Amino acid sequence: MSNIIRGDINEEWAHAGYVMAGDFVFLSYCVGNVGKSVEEQVHGALDDMERKLAQVNLGLSDVVKLDILLRDVWNIPIMEKVFKERFKGVYPARKTISTEFAHAGGPDGLHVQIDGIAYKGKKA
Fold first, then answer.
1. In what order do the strands lie in the sheet containing 15-21?
2. Rg (CA), the chain
């Protein structure tokens, strides 16, 4: 395996926004538009993911696995609507779970967090 590269470091929260290990890029804590509608937060999380992926010359089409954390799982149809717009049929495998976020915004703040894995190796 090649060197492990860590980027988009957040010292305050003690985490890397992404870690590249071999042909895989592990993306953590993708969020955006906190405090806005669930749909806007899903778009914001994917915008954040795209920003991180761009740092290693990748895009959403390179994402192979997503873990989506939602405050309310009944918002899955909203998330799926956004995914159809953004992934355009090139969907990653995914898991969606419900959680109570420990976030400064409280119940009106963070509703969506997305973590993912992207593939940087040779494409078929």
1. 4-10, 15-21, 24-30, 112-119, 63-70, 93-98
2. 14
pLDDT of 80-103, one tens digit each?
A: 999 999 999 999 999 999 988 767
- pTM across the whole model: 0.91
Beta strand pairing status for 4-10 and 24-30?
unpaired
Q: Where are the beta strands (DSSP E) in the chain?
A: 4-10, 15-21, 24-30, 63-70, 93-98, 112-119
Cβ–Cβ < 8 Å for 44, 31: yes
Lookup: tokens for 112: 């969506």
Quote the CA–CA distance of 33 and 110 in Å, as a whole number.
9
